[in-house]
């Protein structure tokens, strides 16, 4: 997102303008500015801590409590300092901060307006839960609708996600967690307006904090696994110099195929890991075979063909990889049963392995190797289409062709790749025969 498209910048500017107009509305008489400052400080501090665990949105109950307690402009203001000060991802950081502050400001403003229109504040003050719960639920639904509508727009414009998929499932996926946050926000508002006051209201955040801690522990464990994965891939790259960068490129192609198939984000991530780790079993293969010039003997080929089983043994203890482990084991199987290690046919081959098989073959054909020159991308795609139905799953091949047509093929190139020796003429006509 270094070079944000012009249309995405216009979109962010329009949302920011909407947020500014919401904030500049005349404040209601008697607005408790001390409460605005307290909630804004609480949200900002909470987001700073949560950002370290990469858990954005943990303190949404504070924003929703503001929507239930304050006039709409004041409620929108609660989100702004925390969003502007919170750590963000890659550049452009200023644009990201403005986007997040604007998005949250507009969403909270709409939620507060919806809540106010329902004349629900008396229900909150009286702790009249049937009415207060229903009114808060509608306000939370409005908050969720605005957030997901704006998210879909930025995905389509900045990340170039196809419009037909940009909003798909966003609202339904977000509604359940935001409903929980809304319930916590409602409890904060009720206690705030009760005889116990703001101090008691802050106690509602304690369960949310415990949940955040549990999720942070999970993310730390996941980060440790990912560090292990990176270490394994780097070890393979060092051992098999001719395929340096291959793992990352196969992961990228696998992700493109998965997205084109419309798979859920969680599966897309798992398939990316599958592509990255597919050749990790080469750590168990003698280096002299991996770096051998010229054709392999039948016995040497049998040794190299053990690498999927070696790789499966290495990763089977990493529980979050899920179906990626099957892809590591079966990515050299072929639909006609001519592959290895078990000669599986058709539907016997796991879907994840069929994705990685296409991605692996595509990168092998478009990369320089010791035994083959890189083919142009169109030629490689044509070869995959020729082999679809015999070696490769036609669905996966079609998905890759469409993804490359839409996004192009721009793999990340490691610095060391430019120093590789010049490739020799090919010695094997089969795509990826020595992989």
TrEMBL record:
Keyword Isomerase carried by entry: no
Region (Disordered): 413-435
Transmembrane stretches, start-end: 62-86, 98-118, 138-158, 170-192, 198-216
Domain named HD-GYP: residues: 221-416
Record-annotated HD domain positions: 243-365
Keywords, alphabetical: Membrane, Transmembrane, Transmembrane helix
Pfam families according to UniProt: HD_5
Domain of life assignment: Bacteria
NCBIfam families (alphabetical): HDIG
Protein name: Uncharacterized protein
Origin species: Streptomyces zinciresistens K42
